[in-house]
Design a protein that fits this description.
Shape: globular
Strand order of the largest sheet: 7-8-9-10-11
CATH architecture of one domain: Alpha-Beta Barrel
Number of helices: 13
Distance between the termini: 15 Å
Radius of gyration: 20 Å
CATH class of one domain: Alpha Beta
Largest sheet: 5 strands, parallel
CATH topology of one domain: TIM Barrel
């Protein structure tokens, strides 16, 4: 790996950014495709496909990740990261008994059968195969890399998204009207377990470094929460069923972050911004035209509430530039990780220098 700044210095930069003391945006840039001078591992790293392949041992899985990292150079505000996306979005569903099937480029969580909401009960399954596999892989990674690579939290998923895996999306929508108390009961069960899994998995992470699939680094406990199921709800139902769980999880964490996914979730922004310890909003506009629209007003709405903002879908950096021109600073803004081939190193350095960042 090519990483000259070191994790301690990088973490210090992120902590200044969290505190509002860094007068610039965070821009992580990773160069890929460097020569490794090594023999390829037995199994190439294929993310979720590799994880779901039970024939690949935890040691072989980490071998494949190590090889990928050795071909990278970390510039700007990036750092060596073992990202937790390899299980798939909503991994906790597997920990609670759903099986994993890899198809169409992703892992899908399939419960043994769909039960009525009043028959669902979620319990901690210590000997669950998939949960043990995650712990074994994280432990191997921690043993292998020590404090030279940050081990991220797996993508546990949102509480309602996990519940929708077991109940079915359409059935769960009906349950909100027909059995609201039962929905709240199982949501509470999943929330308590979510907190427990998070707590346990942190013991397998790099000590003093917290992050997840967003790659936003923190010295204190943080996580990018989400509720994609909420896309189909109105603001009143979001506040009644979803917001309380998010607020409880924010209280459990030190820094709460929310993955605002798609225009259907914009009506929830005020409630999210008023939630205590909800420190950051990550905006993802979705596919198609929304990705090319100007979301300047939404960004300002977030920043004006003194929240942090993660911007993705800004390939030409025009959104970031517009915000810097408006506020006179990129403070409290983080750009989603930029990946560039090693052959474009000079371009990457010029990009970072443009924003006052030492490559």
């Amino acid at each position: 790996m090519k990483f000259t700044k070191g994790l301690a210095k990088t973490l210090d930069t992120y902590e200044k950014w969290w505190a509002g003391d860094l007068d610039r945006a965070l821009i992580p840039v990773i160069l890929t495709g460097n020569e490794t001078g090594r023999e390829p591992p037995r199994y190439p790293y294929e993310g979720m496909k590799s994880f779901s392949n039970k024939n690949i041992s935890p040691e072989e899985f980490v071998d494949s990740v190590d090889y990928e990292l050795s071909a990278m150079e970390f510039l700007g505000d990036s750092y060596p990261l073992f990202n937790g996306q390899y299980v798939g979005p909503g991994a906790m569903a597997a920990f609670l008994g759903a099986d994993i099937h890899f198809t169409a480029g992703s892992n899908w969580f399939i419960p043994e059968k769909e039960l009525p909401i009043n028959e669902l009960k979620f319990e901690y399954l210590e000997n669950n195969f998939w949960y043990k596999r995650v712990r074994d892989i994280m432990s191997e990674a921690k043993s292998r890399w020590g404090d030279s690579v940050v081990i991220g939290m797996p993508d546990l998923g949102g509480v309602f998204d996990i519940l929708a895996t077991f109940r079915g999306t359409e059935s769960l929508l009906t349950d909100l009207y027909d059995s609201p108390d039962e929905v709240k009961r199982v949501v509470d069960e999943i929330k308590v377990l979510w907190h427990r899994y998070y707590e346990e998995l942190t013991t397998h992470m790099t000590e003093g470094y917290y992050t997840d699939w967003s790659a936003i680094l923190s010295k204190e406990r943080s996580y990018m929460m989400q509720s994609d199921f909420s896309y189909m709800l109105g603001p009143d139902m979001f506040d009644e069923f979803v917001l309380g769980e998010l607020a409880d999880t924010c209280a459990f964490l030190d820094r709460g972050c929310y993955h605002l996914d798609g225009i259907g979730q914009i009506p929830f922004i005020e409630s999210l911004l008023e939630t205590a310890k909800m420190d950051l909003i990550q905006w993802v506009p979705g596919d198609g035209d929304p990705a090319t629209q100007d979301w300047f007003e939404l960004y300002c709405q977030i920043l004006d509430k003194d929240k942090h903002l993660q911007i993705n879908y800004d390939d030409d950096f025009s959104a970031l530039d517009k915000l810097i021109n408006h506020y006179g600073t990129g403070k409290k803004i983080v750009r989603g990780t930029v990946h560039m081939p090693a052959s474009m190193r000079e371009n990457a350095c010029k990009l970072l220098s443009r924003y006052g960042i030492d490559p």
